[in-house]
Design brief:
Layout: E1 9-12, H1 29-40, E2 45-48, H2 53-66, E3 75-79, E4 84-89, E5 92-93, E6 97-98, H3 106-120, E7 124-126, E8 134-138, H4 144-164, E9 169-171, E10 174-176, E11 185-189, E12 193-198, H5 203-216, E13 223-228, H6 234-242, E14 246-251, E15 264-266, H7 274-289
Parallel strand pairs: 1-2, 1-13, 2-3, 9-11, 13-14, 14-15
Antiparallel strand pairs: 3-4, 4-5, 4-6, 7-8, 8-12, 9-10, 11-12
The protein binds magnesium ion.
């Protein structure tokens, strides 16, 4: 356990900056090596993703262990937008915790699966590895345009199912409260999936969860870097800034447009994007940990 306060902490989105958007794995070896170097020398690291724990176990944890993750490293996975979490150690993924207050009822889960199977199976598949939220994804053997054409039809039918189960839900600009007036869930369309989740879940909740887990395992740094490829990933830095930490956000896909924020936004050199951009920053931070001053080093 690290006894002194580390210089830097990292909150990392996974798809894009760490796992290649093409291979969906860690495709750049220096990413695992540098993450392990940072974690082994005291930098607290948390992955903050909408993915399931199964994905992190299969695609991330093994790579870190192979790169020499130590017993003293503080590394956590926070999955399903804050609803599921665990520690990653040299022995693998530790016990998985689930916030039951964010979990969709299992009878509703089965009903969505049945709806998908009955009417949308040629365009979508159901992600059975999710524990709290529910994701129905585009089949990789169909064209994006064909998927996006049926996605709203599916979502409208899911909204009707929410009413049948008395789950207050918001979808786009449509609010359907439960009989007690509450809205506890949202249907969130992405370009490759429909996510159905608690309205409390998100990268901000993931950040809050990550800091609590890391704090239980040792002292927290004052300075953080967050890394992501989507606009929603800024919520990690928003949360840290709001809670008094010094933070800068690394946007590895700035072409999507960068918002105005009260903290620094960093981008890679030479138009590097996605995992190549994150790899550049991780290498820089390893150098920082080896003695350069963090001041001025982005
Ligand atoms: Mg991402």
């Amino acid at each position: 356990v690290t006894s002194h306060e580390p210089d830097l902490g990292l909150l990392l989105d996974v798809d894009g900056p760490i796992a290649s958007p093409v291979t969906r794995t860690i495709a750049i070896p220096s990413i695992s090596e540098d993450l392990v170097e940072l974690a082994n020398t005291g930098t607290p690291v948390a992955f903050n993703t909408g993915r399931s724990d199964a994905f992190l176990r299969d695609e991330i944890a093994g790579a870190l262990i192979a790169a020499g993750l130590s017993d003293t490293a503080r590394v956590f996975g926070v999955c399903e937008k804050g609803a599921v979490w665990f520690r990653i150690t040299p022995q693998g993924v530790g016990p998985v915790s689930v916030d039951e207050s964010l979990t969709l009822p299992s009878d509703f889960r089965r009903a969505v699966d049945a709806l998908m199977q009955a009417r949308f199976a040629d365009a979508m598949f159901f992600d059975h590895t999710k524990r709290a939220m529910l994701s129905v994804e585009q089949r990789i053997d169909i064209e994006s345009d064909d998927y996006l054409a049926v996605q709203p039809v599916f979502e409208a039918q899911v909204l009707d199912l929410c009413r049948d189960f008395d789950l207050g839900t918001v979808w786009r600009n449509i609010e359907r409260p439960a009989s007690d007036g509450s809205i506890r869930f949202r249907i969130d369309p992405t370009i490759i999936s429909t996510d159905i989740e608690s309205i409390r879940s998100g990268k901000d909740l993931g950040a809050e969860r990550a800091l609590r887990l890391l704090a239980e395992a040792g002292p927290l740094p004052r300075t953080w870097r967050t890394v992501g490829d989507s606009r929603t990933d800024y919520a990690m830095a928003d949360w840290l800034h709001h809670n008094g930490y010094a933070v800068a956000h690394v946007d590895v896909r700035p072409r999507d447009g960068m918002p105005v924020k009260p903290y620094d936004i960093l981008t890679a050199t030479d138009d590097l994007t996605n995992d190549a951009a994150a790899a550049e920053f991780l290498r820089r931070w390893v150098g920082t940990a080896e003695g350069e001053s963090l001041v001025g080093a982005s």
